[in-house]
Specification:
Helix content is about 55%, strand content about 15%. It is of the alpha+beta class. It has two domains: about 1-70, no CATH class; about 70-114. The protein has a four-stranded mixed sheet. The chain is globular and about 40 Å long.
């Protein structure tokens, strides 16, 4: 996939504008841009601040809500109760490393089956 960076601007009215395509986009369309292999950079139009992570977290939240809604309320309570431990600095590093290893393994497995 050819990854290019697409610059988006978020306006005070909460709308996000794709400078390349010259049109407003929603979170689903940003998700689709990323699925197509693009990188996005989202700037606050008023301040110029890079708010990419905030918007990407909103997209991830939507994905999690769609795909993890079947988790038991007991498990969700446990996550909330353990949030300081679960989301501490060490966990984030372990999570990212585990995720990267899993992705690499999936890619390797896919290549072997083709």
């Amino acid at each position: 996939m050819n990854k290019k960076e697409i610059i988006l601007k978020k306006y005070e009215n909460r709308r996000i504008y794709n400078l390349e395509e010259k049109k407003y986009v929603n979170l689903n369309e940003i998700n689709e841009l990323i699925l197509q292999g693009n990188k996005v950079k989202i700037l606050d139009n008023k301040t110029g601040e890079d708010i990419t992570n905030i918007i990407l977290l909103q997209i991830v939240n939507n994905i999690l809500l769609e795909n993890l809604s079947h988790l038991s309320s007991n498990f969700l309570h446990q996550i909330i109760e353990m949030q300081n431990y679960i989301f501490g600095e060490n966990f984030i590093k372990v999570f990212e490393n585990t995720y990267n290893m899993t992705i690499n393994l999936l890619k390797l497995t896919k290549l072997q089956t083709e």
